[in-house]
Amino acid sequence: MRGIKKEIIEIRDYPIPGVGFKDLTPVWKNQEIFNILIDEMTEIWEDSGIDTVASIESRGFIVGAPIAYKLNAGFVPLRKPDKLPREVHSQPVKLEYGETEIQVHKDAFETSKNVLIIDDLLATGGTAIAAFKLVPKDLVVGFGFMVELSQLNGRKRLEKISDVKIESLVVYD
């Protein structure tokens, strides 16, 4: 977490009034801080036997792909609608300020044994829960997040559906 939190900028009332958007781009553009972020998020899972990282579009891809690389694991993108070219499983997502769905190729986890779900931010947990529903339950080893907004109770919602490990580097109370 060294230096990561101080780089995050909060934008009030974005994208709608009442939302305090966490702008993570300053973390990603700072080479030293970005490397620390990826190293720290990877170290948590090094001994977990992860063979697949499933990451949520789009900001989740920014941290998910390098974590998969460092874990010597495959990468499965969980995408917004109509972005994947073959047959998909879909799951609706209720966001803090809207609704969408995420999709994954039907064969995405055929050879997976231990899946880590990675996203940039845990807020209400809606996206993470949808991701969890897209992965065969017996394969999910844990959830990893760059940032957690604890007052929105996403962790509690995840704990109700699974007993897997949940890790966040930066927590806002």
Keywords for this entry:
single chain, about 170 residues, alpha/beta, 5-stranded parallel β-sheet, two-stranded antiparallel sheet, 6 helices, about 30% helix, globular
Commentary on this structure:
This protein is 29% helix and 35% strand. The chain has six helices and nine strands. It is of the alpha/beta class and 173 residues long. The model has no long low-confidence stretch (mean pLDDT 95).
Number of DSSP strand runs: 9
What is the approximate shape? globular
From the alpha carbons, calculate the radius of gyration and give it in angstroms.
15 Å
User: Order of strands side by side in the largest beta sheet?
Assistant: 4-3-7-8-9
Flag low-confidence runs.
none
* Helix content range: 25-40%
The helix tally amounts to 6
N-to-C series of helices and strands: HEEHHEHEEEEHEHE
Main beta sheet strand tally, sense and closure: 5 strands, parallel
Fraction in beta strands = 25-35%
* Helix-strand category: alpha/beta
Average residue-wise pLDDT: 95
Separation of the first and last Cα atoms = 15 Å
What's the short story on this structure?
The chain is built from 6 helices and 9 strands. By secondary structure, the protein is α/β, with parallel strands linked by helices.
